[in-house]
Amino acid sequence: MSQHEHDTSPADPVRVSDDPADVQKVHELISGMDIAMVTTVDSSDAGGRLTSRPLSTQVAEEDGDVLFLVRRSSPVAADVRADPRVNVAYSSMKAWVSLAGTATLVEDRALVERLWSKGADMFMEGGPDNPDNVVLRVNGDTAHYWGGESLVGTAVSTVKALTGRKDDQDGGSSTVVELP
Question: Fewer C-beta neighbours within 10 Å, C or N terminus of the chain?
Answer without folding.
Answer: N
